[in-house]
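Example record for the data management plan.
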Amino acid sequence: MHGKILKYSATTSSGVIINASKKIFELRKESWHDPRSRPTVGMYVEFRVNENGYIITDAKASAYQHFSEDSLIKEIDFWKTKTDEELKNKENEARAQIAQKIYAKTNYLKIKTLEVNTSVQECIKNYFAVELQSVAFLKTVDKEKLAPLINYRICKRFLDKALDYLVFTDKKLSMDMFAEYLNKMATLEYSYVFFHKNEINIQKAFEDCFLEYQYNYLGALRAASGVRDRILQLSNKVKTSTQEMKILRNRMASKVGENDLNERINKIKTMLNKSYDETNALTSTLTNLENLTKDFKEKNFKVFEEAFSQTTTALKAKIEEGLNVLATQLDNRIWQLGMESVSIKNIFFKNMNEPYCMMTFLGHMIKKLDKSKIIAQNEQSTYKYYYYHQNKYVKKYLIFTSNFDTELNLKIKIMKESKNNNVVVVKKDSQCFSALNKEKFEKIYIDTSYIDQKSLKQLLEDSKHSKYNKDTEYILLSKN
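Corresponding structural encoding:
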């Protein structure tokens, strides 16, 4: 039957569906069988229940999610039907009525051209309605502010790890807080896999989503079929009448009822002449209709094929971009919540000097790999991606202190400013000298409580000649 999701929790993987009779049904994770999308509040669904009529055994998103003013199917039709198949039949009936009206008022004996009822662009838009809707959010996204975008294909499993660990560690957080991102990503992921694993039959798409909506074309086909039937009737009539004439002429040879036979033969001749004339006229009409429909189909297929290919290519790019944008938005949210989380602070940052985000989990895996043994293509891509990101976007800050609280609070403060801020912590002046001569730092924090004045003065003096940090800002920390 048809219904609508009233409530759904990603945390408990359960929700509530209401049907047309306002009856409530419980939706559980194991009953959802739709790889295209996840259950969301407000979603129209098609579902089945068990024999007792209360427990949902199968549920999926309805193909009908939007009911515009000009659509043939309205929301009330959704509630009056039990399945999408019924709705589709109702839609087909509505289109058949439109086609019948056009057919009834068109003179196909004199028609010279076939006009397009629904444009190629509109038909393709309808064909890819779900995909286009799923990437529509990109129009409102400022990608420059989000940059750098995460590569979803490479980072997906590490993004999942970061999210799972965050929700597991901080009990104040739940998956429901991230449902919007996860739902959109699931839809785009399905589309991504479909496009990359399936070759769409353009000819079938042309017939299903374009020709089926061309009422003038369909009317011409129907008229041509009617003309063929009429020509066949006339042909059979001519054959029968010709045979009858032979019989009558044979009778005339015996001169029995000659006058009466002549009259009958003349009537048949008149009828045959009319049949020949009508057949010739109809044959001309049929030829015209066949040429019109053939030309219409061929001309519009070329336009459709090009537009369809362009749309498919553009959609693939948009879907991939959408996944990257959503992954970045989700990662930003994970980073924001992770950096504010007391639980994460107490557990995660005791031994970590990188912000709580996907890239930290990715880096943790990369650092375990033996570079000389990386052979698999996916591992090579991941390895290159990580170090490209680190070299291009990551900024490092040096903290010199032996006080754990100072270290923890300062590095969290730094990493809250950007998820691309990493810190290096040193506890001895010798380690500090070594770090200064190894890489560039954005800022250097020195806890003066743990270095004597002579060493501090020497450190600051040597930094002026540092290859990497002669212009770096030094911030001296003190208990005062």
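Summary line stored alongside the record: The beta strands are 2-9, 14-19, 24-28, 44-49, 56-61, 395-400, 421-426, 443-447, 473-477.
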